Structures are given as C-alpha cells and as structure tokens.
Amino acid sequence: MASQRVLLVEDDEMLHTMYTQKFTKEGYEVLSGYNGAEGIKIAEEEQPDVILLDIIMPKMDGFVALKKLKKSDTTKHIPVILLTNLGQEEDIRKGKELGASDYFIKANHTPQEVVDKVKEVMTTGGVAQA
Fold first, then answer.
1. Single Gene Ontology BP term (predicted)?
2. Which residues have CB under 8 Å from 108's CB, separation 6+?
3. Which domain holds residue 62?
4. Predicted TM-score of the model (pTM)
C-alpha cells in the first residue's frame, strides 16, 4: 500500500522541518509548499490525502488558499486542517465556514497531536470528531 500523503503548507522553515520530520517518522509522505499559491498548485497536481495549511503566509494567505481549494473541482474533496497561531474565535469560525476540517493553534498543540488529528481526519473522510 502506498503511504498516505500530507501536503504541508507552512512558511516558517523551522516548523516546516519539524512537522516534515514528525510525519515522515510516522510513515507519511510529505509534500511541501511555502505559501498559499504553491499549496494550491501542489494540491492540484499531487492530490494529497490531507492538507495542513498555515494562514499567515507570503503571496497568498491560508484563508484565500482554503477558499480556492474548496471551490476547485480538483481539490474540494481534500480535507484541510488549518495550522496557525491565529487563535481568535472569529478566525476559527472563518476557517470552518470556508471548509476547514479542523483548526489547530500551533502554540496549543504538539506535533504528535497534529499527527493524531490527521490520522483521524483520514479515517473519517475529512470530518473532524469533537
């Protein structure tokens, strides 16, 4: 069986490396994007199983990228988990309204918790469990 593929769209090099190592160690293939525009292009071409998407990024922020991903016939089926430091209720609500499967505040969750949520989202077909 081919390994499951996670698209990580994160502009912070240190966090990008940390999450890439964690997911690789857990047996996932990690595809990498460093801004929203790259993330969309990779998602369309590679069709990952799930997308981890930062919000504050250069060129195109995560909210704009999420909106485009969910409007495109080629990517709307891919679960997207927002991974950000924006923790305001308004930002969380906006992410969910735009179609995010879940919303993680980086400072509040360990990489293992993020991996566990990705496993759950893949198992439930993109529907996060409370």
1. phosphorelay signal transduction system
2. 87
3. 5-123
4. 0.90
**Alpha carbons 64 and 97: distance in angstroms, whole number:** 12
Residue from 50, 52, 44, 64 nearest 9 by CA:
52
Question: At 126, phi and psi to the nearest 5?
Answer: 95, 0
Distance CA 109, CA 128 (A): 16
pLDDT tens-place string over residues 64-81: 999 999 999 999 999 999
Share above pLDDT 90 across residues of the chain, in percent, rounded to a whole number: 61
46 with 8: CB under 8 angstroms? Answer: no
Q: Give the DSSP H or E segment for 105.
A: strand 102-105
Q: In the numeric block, which tokens belong to residue 58?
A: 């250069």
Q: Output the six-digit token pair for 94.
A: 């906006």
Q: Is residue 9 part of a domain?
A: yes
Phi, psi of 36, deg, nearest 5: -60, -40
Residue 128 placed within a domain? no
